[in-house]
Specification:
By secondary structure, the chain is α/β, with parallel strands linked by helices. It has 9 helices and 7 strands; from the N terminus they run βαβααβαβαβααβααβ. The protein has helices at 21-31, 43-51, 55-58, 71-85, 109-137, 149-152, 159-179, 207-214, 225-236; strands at 10-13, 35-40, 61-65, 90-93, 140-145, 184-191, 247-250. Strands 3-2-1-4-5-6-7 form a 7-stranded parallel beta sheet, sandwiched between helices. Strand 1, helix 1 (21-31) and strand 2 (35-40) form a beta-alpha-beta unit. It is globular, with a radius of gyration of 18 Å.
Length: 265
């Protein structure tokens, strides 16, 4: 029997203040009864999201400030949640930098480090401080947001972004192996382009370019935040209790064939 009820589960979603996948996922988890911590670096953005929620969802919504690339801030964040809730059931490592689309000879060392520190190091730090609590309670779900850039490269980002997203996959598999005996499931989702504010930032994509991209996707459309959020609910629920160490593509079939082989008329 399918049961996606997350009543009372304590969830931390990093990078959840941008109005995209993290934000939408938090709202969906709240609607299923979870207690959700929306993480971000700016108080006003998190407060704006919580203020916009329906009254019945606000009661279980929490904002928490931390730069996930900084060890001390992550530790403080996890300690605060644990102190208030006495448990952390679900961690969704969503925070990412998503810097400029520069080629290898153009990207600076600091831009490279920013990609790695937020996306990969941030996922490591959050996992490092959350997992001991999950081990004690003999239960937990850790989910990473990777990208098909880890498998195919990408025209819209840079080597730092692709490398960080690839590193997440190795982190996921090793953690899944180490934590299986503690009843902790660790998985990754691998979205392609999702129609969120991040991909339109600084004019990187617009409606016309997204429409062109959709023509090369077998399902014929760009992914939406809810497409990712729905999979995250599945992986966070006990329905997926026998799944660990996996990467699950959310790309409308985009990895099935090169774009030059599109059969669409």
């Amino acid at each position: 029997m399918f049961n996606f009820n997350l009543e009372g589960k304590v969830v931390l979603i990093t990078g959840a203040s941008g109005g995209g996948v993290g934000t939408y996922t938090g709202k969906l988890f709240l609607s299923l009864g979870a207690i959700v911590y929306f993480n971000g670096k700016e108080q006003h953005k998190i407060q704006s999201i919580i203020s916009s929620l329906p009254e019945n969802l606000k009661v279980n919504a929490r904002g928490i400030i931390a730069d996930v690339s900084k060890d001390s801030e992550v530790k403080q964040m996890i300690d605060e949640i644990q102190k208030k809730e006495k448990r952390i059931d679900i961690l969704i490592n969503n925070a990412a930098n998503g810097g400029p689309a520069k080629k290898i000879g153009e990207i600076t060392h600091s831009e490279w480090e920013k990609e790695i520190s937020t996306t990969l190091n941030g996922s490591f730090l959050c996992s490092r401080y959350v997992v001991p609590h999950m081990m004690k309670q003999k239960y937990g779900k850790v989910i990473f947001i990777s990208s098909n850039a880890a498998f195919k490269g990408t025209w819209g980002r840079n080597v730092g972004y692709a490398s960080a997203k690839a590193g997440i996959l190795g982190l996921c598999k090793q953690m899944a192996l180490e934590l299986a005996s503690y009843n902790i499931n660790v998985n990754s989702v691998v979205p392609s382009q999702i129609n969120s504010p991040r991909i339109k930032r600084n004019g990187r994509k617009d409606e016309k370019t997204l429409e062109l991209h959709a023509k090369n996707i077998p399902l014929g459309r760009i992914g939406e935040p809810e497409d990712v959020a729905n999979m995250l609910v599945f992986l966070a629920s006990d329905v997926s209790s026998y799944i660990t160490g996996q990467e699950i593509f959310i790309d409308g079939g985009g990895t099935l064939a090169p774009s030059t082989t599109s059969l669409r008329s």
